[in-house]
Fold this protein.
Amino acid sequence: MSATETASTSDASKARRPWSIAAYLLALALITLVPSFVFAGILMQRNHQAQENTIETLILATTRSLVQAVEREINANITTLRVLATTPSLHQGSFRAFHAYGRLALENTKANLFVVNSDYSTLMSTSTPFGESLPRSSDLDSIRRAFERNDVEITDLVRGSLSNDWAYNILLPVNLGPYGRKIIALNQRADNISQALLTNKLPEGWSTALLDADGQIISASFGAGVTGETFTRFDALSQPFSVRWQRITTDEGTYQTVIQRSGLTGWRLVSWAPVEVINKPLLDAVLSLVAGAVVLAALIIITLYWVTRRIGSSVRGLARDAKRLGRGESVVAKPYPVAEIADVSQALAEASAQRRSAEAEVRFLMRELAHRSKNQMTVIAAMAKQTARGEEDVAHYVQNFEKRIMGLARSTDLLLTHGRAGVELKELLTHHIAPFGPSDGERLKLTGEVVRLNAQAAQIMGMAAHELSTNAAKYGAFSTEKGRLEVSWTIEGDHLAFRWREYMETKRALPETKDTAEARTEHKGFGTTVLNSMVGGALGAKVERIMHGDGMEWRFEIPMSALHPDYAGPRANEDKAAE
């Protein structure tokens, strides 16, 4: 691979670097929380908008109520003035009596009644004794307009020429006939209006001020201004009237304002609040949301750190267990805090145990294979020697030797098929008897319990069955058309009672041939060697042959310890028996 390809592979590997558990958990937290906070922000914005609409409605209603309260106060004063204008003493020219009546009527009030002549001189005032010289009114323009309009005139804020207090005048023109046209005026202190303003409270953070046509403060809420001052927070006189509130930006800040005008007086009622005050609930909610988000984020980070540590340490433990499993070392299941990881750890431990078992099985089979190969070579050598005894014909020797080799091979096949589980005795006998037995199944009977043989016993019993079947085919039950073979076995205590019984034709003596004579004189050929030396010697069995008038019988009493699959058997006996 070239350097360029190596660099490309390295870059691709870096690009495909997997995420950590913490990254996935953080992504999950963000996916879960961010939409929630966005939705909460939208809800807060909508709630704030609804609150603003509510506050706007409240402010508009309150300012209208304030204007109406001022107009009610002015109308009450106008009514008082009209009543005083109907006093008979006034129309009779008895101004002293009118002065006394006016004082009595306005007693316990802060109002003052005065009369102005057509030449703008002051005729009388209830604030001074009758007959004293009085200065001219300071608001001649309003008096002139009252004379010209011949209607009630409400002045702007004026400072009293006698009391020097800020006040407003209500001027009512009257025609006294022979006494000429006069102005009956009611002088009211400006602070009377404040009582009307205080009866209707605005929401917290809002201020209000009542302004005359010149922009002077007639009355204002606490901290909004002083009576007589010019309103300078913003240019209220140039602002249009509106049925909704409006936003005004100045050098000092931005205000949300409501401006109402009194049709009776021409005065303006101005209510305002800094935008920060209106936005404060939203800001507080946002700050609360941010504070909650910070606390929640801290909790999430702490939780993620804890969970990541727990899962990360568990996963790293699994990785170490997997490496040990790969090296063939023992792996023990650990009680990990995560159930799924604990299940994987248990699976690794089970896999480790299975691997060790499989490796032990392989080692056992390898040892067994080496041992069996050695034994089989020894057995084959013994078979070759025993088969050669008494044989003069090479072809006959080869044929017999080949049959015995095939019998040994059948036992080996069964061993390889069943492995450590062992070979079943009945299956072993069936495989070795079948090549020599008759096609008629009724002439062969195999009965007995399920008995499994280990490798050594299977080889020896297989060779014994082969030799007995060979003799049965040559000289015994399978050499005639009606001969029978019955093989049976039972477990009696700690040994296996095995019986091989051959039946010849009924009431017919065995022919005196060379082979039968050999059998009767118990000539020890290879078959006899297998039965006596290997079965008797290697398996520790008691071997007995019995001759009957109708056939022959072999009886073996074999210890179960020599047959059991888990019993390896004495290697020395095998070698000795094979010689």
In short: Residues 451 and 486 are 17 Å apart (CA to CA). The chain has a mean pLDDT of 79. The longest helix spans residues 21-85. The radius of gyration is 65 Å.
